[in-house]
Amino acid sequence: QVQLVESGGGLVQAGGSLRLSCAASGSISSINHMGWYRQAPEKQRELVAAVIRGGTTNYADSVKGRFTISRDNAKNTVYLQMNSLKPEDTAVYYCLFISIQGASSRQYWGQGTQVTVSS
After folding, report:
1. pLDDT digit string, tens, across residues 68-82
2. Distance, CA of 112 to CA of 72 (rounded, Å)
3. Torsion, CA 82, CA 88, CA 94, CA 97, rounded to 10
4. How far is residue 49's CA from residue 47's CA, in Å, rounded to a whole number?
């Protein structure tokens, strides 16, 4: 049974930094997509940042220049460095891995980690 284990969330003041980590316990092969998503109260889950196997990254406009996503393929781990945090970054952050093998794909979600930014 593969699980994604997240860590690094917490409470921080505006302008501060946090680093989130998400590691897969168990074996997952052919991970193409590693991403971070967030969901604030009464809002839909949204993409924060993603990185694909070749290294191409994609960021939400609201976090460009402040957040950096990186991945360690050998460890099946993805990181999100969050700098210059704002109160509007407050949300539960989820990681997502997408494994693609041939014509089939499978998604793995983390359990979520709370990030709270105080003003």
Report:
1. 999 998 899 999 999
2. 20
3. -60
4. 6
Token pair 């316990």: residue:
25
Distance of alpha carbon 67 from alpha carbon 42, whole angstroms: 23
What is the dihedral sign for C-alpha 3, 33, 9, 77?
positive
d(CA 58, CA 44): 19
- Give 28's contacts (C-beta < 8 A, 6+ positions apart): 2, 76, 97, 99, 108
Mean pLDDT of 21-47: 92
pLDDT for 23: 95
Tell me if 50 sits within 8 A of 69, measured CB to CB.
yes
